[in-house]
Specification:
By secondary structure, the chain is mainly alpha-helical. The chain has one domain. 49% of the residues lie in helices and 0% in strands. The longest helix has 32 residues.
Length: 103
């Protein structure tokens, strides 16, 4: 792959909304959409604090969304898992050391 192809792939990834967090990854990093035309950024300094506040809020929303999705994925995974031996935390068990390599 050439550097140009890698840049194009990175741009395509950063340009699409993530399903879970509902944000574009570039937008979470830089607080704006990756522009495709004019690449100059005009920002007034008094608006900087509100810009940073919005960026922080978007991070918090993304983090909450990812935590909710993590719990949903765990719940789905745990539906197919069960404790066949009836083991509980702090039970003493014997381990076979046949496949354990140690010094």
């Amino acid at each position: 792959m050439t550097l140009c192809q890698l840049s194009a792939a990175e741009f395509q990834y950063n340009d699409k909304k993530h399903v879970v967090i509902d944000y574009i990854p570039f937008e979470l990093n830089f607080g704006r959409h990756p522009w495709k035309e004019n690449l100059t950024v005009k920002m007034e300094l008094p608006k900087l604090e509100s810009f940073l506040q919005e960026l922080q809020e978007s991070w918090e929303v993304a983090k909450k969304s990812m935590e909710i999705e993590k719990e949903a994925m765990k719940k789905q995974f745990d539906k197919k898992r069960r404790n066949q031996k009836g083991l509980k935390v702090r039970y003493n068990v014997w381990l076979k050391t046949k496949n354990i390599n140690s010094n």
